C-alpha cells in the first residue's frame, strides 16, 4: 500500500501544472490508467463513484487559471473489474491528466483507509500528448530514447505517444514535463547546431614581431622536451618544458593571484555522478568524458579468469572487465564543479566573501572527438582554475579585475599577440546549449582570450587558439549545490587556461631560442640539455 507521507509529496508535485514550458502554448493530454487495489472493490462502487465525481468537478479543476477551466482535466470514463479501477482522463495544459491521476490516487487512498483497501500499483496503459507547439518546424526527425514510442511532427507541432506501461515514477518525478521540454529543445537546437560560435571582438593587442613559423609541438618532440605516451592526446613533459610551465605559473601567481587576494586550494580530479548531475554537465557530457569504473566485486577469485587470460595471451581481456565493473563517475572535466562539494548545503557567512581561490594541482580530461593536435589540443591537460564567489556585485567586479590582470600578463609581460572576445558562455556549450545567455545584460557571460599561431597561416585567415577564458556564471553553481550567503544573493565566476596552450602560443610566436623570449620568462626558466637517446 502506498504510504501517506509519499502521497503528500506527490500532491505537492502537482504544482507542475503551472510550469512554464518554453515554446509550449497549447497541449492535449489523453491518458488511460489502471489502478490496482489490494482487494476486490466491486462492492465499493458507490463510494468510489462519489470520489470520482467530486474529483472530476473540483479536484481536477483546482489550480487552473480563471477562464481556463476548460483546459483542466476531465474524467472521460471509468470502470471497475475485480481489484482494478480503469480511468480515462483528458486535459489541456492546465491541471494535466498526469497530475489529475496523482491527485486522484491521493483521494482514493484516503477512501481506502476507510474501506480497508489500498492501491498496490498504477499502470499507465496509454499516454498521448498532442499539439505541442515547437516554435518552428524541425529540420530533421526528433527522437527520445526512453519512454517514448513515437513523435509525429505536423509542421511546427508534435504529438508524443508514450510507451505502454510508462512507469508512474517517471510521472511523479516530472519526467513527462522534461520529455516535452527535451523535444522542444532538440528542435530549437537544430537551428544552431553546427554553426560557428557567436562572439564579439572586445580588444586586440598591437601587432607583434613573429620569430617562428613552425608547429612548436613537433619541434619540442624532436628536442625531447616532450614525449607522447601510449594514450591519445597525452604527453610526458620533460625538465625544460616543466621549467617553462613553472615560469608561467610564477608569473600568474605574482601578477594576478597575489594582488587580487586569491589563495590556493586542491580540488578533486574525480567527479562522482552526483557532481555532473548537479552541475548540469550530465545533460550532454557523455561523448567527451573519461569514465571512472570500479569493480563490482573486489575478490581476486572473481577476477581470476581475467588474470588468467593475460597470463596466457599477454593481452587485456576488456570484455570480461566491462562485465565486472560499474561506472561511478568521470575524471574531472571542467575542474571547478568538484570544488562545490566543499560548500554544498552550507550558508557562507558574509565575512568569508568574496571567496577567491585557485587550483593548479592536477590535470583534467576530455575525449576530443575532433582529434588531438600536439600540445594545442590534448586530452590530458593541466590548467589553473580560477574561482571566485560572492555577491553579484563582487563577482562582476572580480571577473573584470581577473580579465584585466590576464590582459596585462599576456600583452605586457609575455608580449603575445592576442584578442579578447565576448562569447557564448562555456557552460552553456558544455550542457548542449550554444545560445547567447539570456542574462548577458545582468553581467553573466564569458570572455575568451585567443592567440595567433603563425604556423596556421595568415592572421586574418587562420584560426587563432583559445588559451584562456573568464566567466561570470551567476547563481548557477550556488543554486545547483544548495549554497547560500548569510546575506543576499550568491554568485560565482571562474577562469580556466591550460599551460599547454599558453606555452603553445608563446613558442609559436617567439620560437625556441631563449633570446627571443620575454624577459619575465627568461629570468625564471632554467634550460639544460635534455635526455639524449642512442
Percent strand equals 25-35%
Q: What gross morphology would you assign? A: elongated
Segments where pLDDT lies below 50 for 5+ residues? 1-24, 436-441
Going by helix content, strand content and strand pairing, the class is alpha+beta
- Helical content (DSSP H or I, runs of 4+): 25-40%
What is the number of helices?
A: 15
**Whole-Å distance between the termini?**
77 Å
Write down how many β-strands occur, each being a DSSP E stretch of 2 or more residues.
22
Notes on the structure:
Mean pLDDT is 90; it is low at 1-24 and 436-441. β5 (148-154) and β6 (157-162) form a beta hairpin. α1 runs antiparallel to α3 (97-115), α7 packs across α11 and α7 crosses α14 (499-510). The strands form 5 sheets. Strands 7, 10, 15, 16, 17, 18, 19, 20 and 22 form a 9-stranded mixed beta sheet that branches. Strands 2-3-1-4-6-5 form a 6-stranded antiparallel beta sheet, with helices on one face. Strands 11-13-12 form a 3-stranded antiparallel beta sheet. Helix content is 31%, strand content 26%. The chain has helices at residues 4-13, 45-59, 97-115, 168-172, 175-192, 216-222, 239-257, 274-279, 304-313, 318-324, 392-413, 426-430, 476-480, 499-510, 519-522; strands at 28-37, 74-81, 84-91, 119-133, 148-154, 157-162, 199-204, 226-228, 235-237, 263-264, 270-272, 291-295, 325-331, 347-348, 355-359, 363-365, 380-390, 418-423, 445-451, 465-474, 484-485, 491-498. The chain starts with a helix and ends in a 12-residue tail after the last helix. The longest helix is centred in the C-terminal third of the chain and has 22 residues, at 392-413. It contains 15 helices and 22 strands. By secondary structure, the chain is an alpha+beta fold.
Amino acid at each position: 500500500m502506498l504510504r501517506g507521507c509519499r502521497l503528500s509529496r506527490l500532491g505537492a508535485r502537482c504544482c507542475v501544472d503551472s510550469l512554464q514550458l518554453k515554446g509550449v502554448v497549447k497541449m492535449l493530454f489523453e491518458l488511460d490508467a489502471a489502478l490496482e487495489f489490494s482487494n476486490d472493490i466491486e462492492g465499493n462502487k458507490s463510494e468510489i463513484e462519489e470520489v470520482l465525481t467530486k474529483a472530476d468537478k473540483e479536484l481536477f479543476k483546482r489550480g487552473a487559471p480563471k477562464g481556463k477551466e476548460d483546459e483542466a482535466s476531465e474524467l472521460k470514463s471509468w470502470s471497475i473489474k475485480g481489484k482494478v479501477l480503469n480511468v480515462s482522463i483528458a486535459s489541456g495544459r492546465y491541471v494535466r491528466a498526469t497530475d489529475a491521476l496523482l491527485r486522484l490516487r491521493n483521494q482514493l487512498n484516503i477512501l481506502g483507509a476507510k474501506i480497508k483497501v489500498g492501491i498496490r500499483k498504477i499502470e499507465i496503459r496509454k499516454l498521448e500528448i498532442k499539439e505541442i507547439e515547437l516554435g518552428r518546424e524541425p529540420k530533421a526527425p526528433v527522437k527520445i530514447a526512453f519512454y517514448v514510442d513515437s513523435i509525429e511532427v505536423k509542421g511546427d507541432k508534435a504529438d508524443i505517444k508514450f510507451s505502454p506501461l510508462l512507469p508512474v515514477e517517471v510521472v511523479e518525478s516530472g519526467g513527462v514535463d522534461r520529455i516535452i521540454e527535451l523535444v522542444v529543445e532538440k528542435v530549437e537546437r537544430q537551428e544552431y547546431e553546427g554553426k560557428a560560435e557567436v562572439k564579439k571582438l572586445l580588444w586586440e593587442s598591437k601587432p607583434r614581431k613573429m620569430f617562428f613559423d613552425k608547429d612548436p609541438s613537433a619541434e619540442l618532440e624532436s628536442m625531447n622536451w616532450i614525449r607522447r605516451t601510449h594514450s591519445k592526446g597525452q604527453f610526458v613533459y620533460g625538465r625544460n618544458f616543466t621549467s617553462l610551465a613553472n615560469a608561467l605559473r610564477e608569473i600568474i601567481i605574482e601578477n594576478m593571484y597575489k594582488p587580487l587576494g586569491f589563495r590556493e586550494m586542491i580540488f578533486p580530479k574525480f567527479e562522482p555522478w552526483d557532481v555532473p548531475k548537479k552541475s548540469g554537465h550530465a545533460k550532454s557530457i557523455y561523448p567527451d568524458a573519461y569514465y571512472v569504473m570500479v569493480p563490482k566485486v573486489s575478490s581476486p577469485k572473481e577476477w581470476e579468469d581475467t588474470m588468467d587470460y593475460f597470463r596466457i595471451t599477454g593481452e587485456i581481456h576488456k570484455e570480461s572487465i566491462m562485465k565486472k565493473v560499474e561506472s561511478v563517475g568521470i575524471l574531472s572535466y571542467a575542474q571547478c564543479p568538484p570544488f562545490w562539494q566543499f560548500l554544498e548545503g552550507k550558508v557562507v557567512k558574509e565575512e568569508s566573501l568574496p571567496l577567491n581561490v585557485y587550483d593548479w594541482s592536477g590535470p583534467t580530461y576530455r575525449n576530443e572527438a575532433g582529434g588531438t593536435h600536439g600540445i594545442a589540443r590534448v586530452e590530458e591537460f593541466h590548467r589553473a582554475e580560477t574561482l571566485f564567489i560572492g555577491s553579484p556585485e563582487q563577482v562582476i567586479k572580480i571577473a573584470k579585475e581577473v580579465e584585466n590582470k590576464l590582459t596585462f600578463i599576456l600583452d605586457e609581460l609575455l608580449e603575445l599577440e592576442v584578442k579578447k572576445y565576448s562569447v557564448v558562455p562555456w557552460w552553456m556549450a558544455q550542457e548542449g546549449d550554444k545560445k547567447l545567455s539570456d542574462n548577458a545584460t545582468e553581467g553573466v557571460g564569458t570572455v575568451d582570450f585567443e592567440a595567433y599561431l603563425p604556423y596556421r597561416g595568415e592572421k586574418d585567415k587562420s584560426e587563432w587558439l583559445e588559451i584562456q577564458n573568464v566567466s561570470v556564471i551567476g547563481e548557477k553553481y550556488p543554486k545547483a549545490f544548495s549554497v547560500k550567503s548569510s546575506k543576499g544573493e550568491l554568485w560565482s565566476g571562474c577562469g580556466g587556461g591550460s599551460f599547454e596552450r599558453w606555452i603553445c602560443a608563446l613558442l609559436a610566436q617567439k620560437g625556441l631560442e631563449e633570446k627571443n623570449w620575454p624577459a619575465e620568462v627568461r629570468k625564471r626558466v632554467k634550460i639544460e640539455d635534455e635526455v639524449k637517446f642512442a
